[in-house]
Structure formats: structure tokens, C-alpha cells
Amino acid sequence: MTDDGTAAAAATSTLGYEQARDELIEVVRRLEAGGTTLEESLALWERGEELAKICRHWLEGARARLDAALARPDGEPSTASDG
User: Fold this and answer.
1) Is 31 exposed, middle or buried (0-12, 13-18, 19+ CB in 10 A)?
2) Residue 54: predicted pLDDT
3) Which of 1, 17, 33, 62 has fewest C-beta within 10 Å?
């Protein structure tokens, strides 16, 4: 038998940014709409936190890649005085 938390973490680690974002939007919509039990609401909240963490991870990675590209001499934007 596998640990549910480990299985869920493995499944969500393969989500792309857009997939995680879209699912997070749906989770928020369901929470805002109400009409769920306390257990369902807690499960949705936990899923939302997990999805937000995935989105943050992707965005931080993108920021690091942009910073690295801009730090390279060939990645620096040209200026008017270069020519």
C-alpha cells in the first residue's frame, strides 16, 4: 500500500504551470461558491495550497532562468551607445 500524501505529491509534481493554475482557479471558484461540507472545503483548501506551491515553484524557476539569461553578456539588452 502506498502513502496517499506521497502519491499525491508525485502526481502533482508533474503538473505544468498552466495546469496547476487552471486547477487552482477551479478550486477557488468551488470554495467561493460554497455549498460544500467542512471536509470537502478542507480538502479543497489543502489542494489549493498544494497547487499554489506548484505555481510558485514554476514562477520562481522562470524568474531564475530570466535572471540568468540577463546576466550573460550575450543576454544583455543593447543600448544606443553600442553602435
Assistant:
1) middle
2) 97
3) 1
